[in-house]
Amino acid sequence: MPSPSPTTTLRRRGGSPSRDTPTNELTVKQEQQSLKTSRTAADLIADHPAIKPVILDSQETETPFSSSTQATEETSGTSFTRTTTTTTTTTSSPSITSRIIHILLKPFYFLLFVILHLGHELIISARTMKTLVQVFFLPHLFPVAPELVRIVRKDVGENMVKKPTHLAVITEKSGITLTGEVDETEENEWHAKVAQLAQWSSAVGIKTLSIMRNTPLDPEDLEALQDRIDHTMKDFYKEEKRVPIALVRTLRPVEESLSLVFQQNNSNNNNNSQPTIQRDLRPHGGRAFDLDIVILSPEDGHDRLAGNIRLLGKAALRQQITSDQITTKFMDTQLSADLSEPELLIILKDDLDLSSYPPWHIRLTEIFHHPDQAVIPVYTMFLQALHRFAKCEQRFGK
Amino acid sequence: MRAVAIKALQCGSIPKHIGLIMDGNRRYGRKVHVGNGKGYYLGYETLEEILAVCMEMGVKVVTVYAFSIENFKRPADQVETLMELAKTKLAELCEQSELVRQYGIGIRVLGDTSLLPDDVRKVIRKAVDLTKKNNRAILNMCFPYTSREELTMATRSLVSGIEAHDLNPSDISTSVLEESLYTRSCPPMDILIRTSGEIRLSDFMLWQSSRACHVEFVDCFWPEFTFWKLLPILLRYQLRAISIAQSRREYGRGEGAEEEEEDDSEAVLLNTDVIKAQETSLEQEQGFVMMSQRNSSESTLVTCEMDETLEVELPCGPMLEKKQRVSSFLHHRGHLPNCPIVHLQ
């Protein structure tokens, strides 16, 4: 049955002896006791300047404060508020002049606030202008959107020391309009963008590409996207003999992840082998592929972790696992079974926002974001991010 | 000058929760040729300064990444220096710090403190206990912390709750998980700042920062970070504040009608709510027993069937019961001794 009733917990937390007295005692006695507690509470407040409330905007602070004292279960809520009101009157009355000064200064502060923001805006526009100029001269360096694998390889360069094996991309709002209907053109644009990213990633030699979008992808659209990527890949690699295969998928339901862990545990126990089996356990859908494209939506982030707990809880009720078994390593095997940790994350959004990208996975991910999204081509950002990544050193806490 | 700028900033929206990854202390120490250890001390001074600024602005919670579990891999003498620093500074903060007294800062230590030496743990306990009642602001020291450990800890405790039949698997939602993290009594994180030009989160506040949070990577070492470097970040945040609030609402809606709204007032009213919930659910239970007794002659079966039938036929009863069960679970277990629940003013 459920835990002890809340009323008893209230008493226990309050810690005051007066609460524990039986209710059928004399009311006079109770009053005396409550008086006593109120006095001690007042003393406590006097001793603790930290708990004393600031009384600057008296009218505003009073009500939330009294309610919060009840919530924090101070022993004598009423006496507490009484003391605050008295201090309010004593401290606020002599400061009328300072208050007038304060009111007079308000427009000045607001002016300064506006000036600060304008100045900041100016700096940002100056920076945007600078990137605009840079973008203007870009075509001499490399194309805005290359259409052949040869060009990408040349742009990336042979001597890039470090390349990510898993690239994550967060894309801008797509799909659904304000009315809730699917916006065809925007959806189409998004598909084109994904196809392009797939081309470039495969040219660089990236193994996994995870793409985050705002809304879950329709299963029908998934098929269409697969067709489109197959098609564009053919175009992209028309000079080469072999066209790499890209497979588009979404995350599998969280329920399957646990069985994967059990499988792995069993195989580990039986064979005493290294934990490298995990990668091979991924179902390939019967196809061998060179590039694994995972489409993610916000539901795969926080909610998936909560769903995972539900799953583990059910497993615990079936006595398949115990809560002591849950370690960071256990969770990692389970959560990374379907999606590996990305090494580089490119944010194709105006603001640097992680948009619920699965939190477990972005521990050591390099996050690349260009502040001038509107003026800079995606390909340029892609190259910049790769170069930035190549320069990064990871110390792993050392 | 600084005070005037702060007053001006207060015309716009002020973040409630700021996270800081204080990176680059050692590199700064080497840069100005004072050595690693001194770098840490300089870093601490910067922290104090930034903390004062934040408090003056009206920021409710400041979370700092003081020590990662991974940092135990560092050379032993450096770890030792950091431990000593933490010990002296924590004691200083809770006993003599004017800042803590003036702004009513409650100190919390987030992380797996069982990894620490005994003497440090004792100081932490004392610091947390002494400032437990301060409810106007919170300083979260992540020491030794990683976000994965936090998530694992929360998962483990919730699963153990299910194991002990205190919770149902269906009770677990995103907001319940959120409330069992170390940052349970803090408002959602608004700004995350990482210094030293690195562009990753390094296992810090992954859950909290990955939605509706303004992330900034600053290209200077932590001891060089000043209010004037914070100012443009705050201005950028103010530009985004509306969209952040909106996306937070969207996430809240996404969690479904069953979920309780993550509201500040909700937390305050929680206790009274629980009592009411219990009373009503008790009434309903009694009513139900009578009803079902009339229906079925086997009274022994009634109690067994109760849970199932309640869920199907009375959408109100089990929901309140669930709410109460979850909140009582979250309140009663004591696995987070260094993060006592407080209701911020």
Largest interface: A-B, 80 and 96 residues
CATH architecture of the largest domain in chain A: 3-Layer(aba) Sandwich
* β-strand number of chain B: 6
Are there runs of chain B of 5+ residues with pLDDT below 50, and where?
257-315
The biggest beta sheet of chain A is recorded as:
6 strands, parallel
Query: How large, in whole angstroms, is the Cα Rg of chain A?
Result: 31 Å
Radius of gyration of chain B: 23 Å
Strand order of the largest sheet of chain B: 3-4-2-1-5-6
- Number of structural domains of chain A: 2
CATH fold naming of the largest domain in chain B: Undecaprenyl pyrophosphate synthetase
User: Mean pLDDT of chain B, nearest integer?
Assistant: 80
CATH architecture of the largest domain in chain B: 3-Layer(aba) Sandwich
Task: Determine the CATH superfamily of the largest domain in chain A.
Answer: Decaprenyl diphosphate synthase-like
| Biggest sheet architecture of chain B | 6 strands, parallel
User: Within the CATH hierarchy, at the fold level, what is the topology of the largest domain in chain A?
Assistant: Undecaprenyl pyrophosphate synthetase
Shape of chain A: globular
The residue fraction in helices of chain A comes out at 40-55%
Q: What is the string of SSEs of chain A from the N terminus onward?
A: HHHHHHEHEHEHHEHHEEH
What fraction of residues of chain B sit in β-strands? 5-15%
- How many runs of DSSP E, i.e. beta strands of chain A? 6
Tell me the distance between the termini of chain A: 49 Å
Present the secondary structure layout.
The complex is a heterodimer of chains A (398) and B (345).
Chain A: H1 6-14, H2 27-47, H3 58-71, H4 77-92, H5 96-137, H6 149-156, E1 166-170, H7 184-204, E2 208-212, H8 219-236, E3 246-250, H9 255-271, H10 277-280, E4 291-296, H11 302-317, H12 328-335, E5 344-347, E6 366-369, H13 378-391
Chain B: H1 2-9, E1 17-21, H2 25-31, H3 35-57, E2 61-65, H4 76-95, H5 98-103, E3 105-110, H6 118-130, E4 137-142, H7 147-163, H8 174-179, E5 191-194, H9 206-209, E6 214-217, H10 227-254, H11 264-295, H12 299-313, H13 316-332
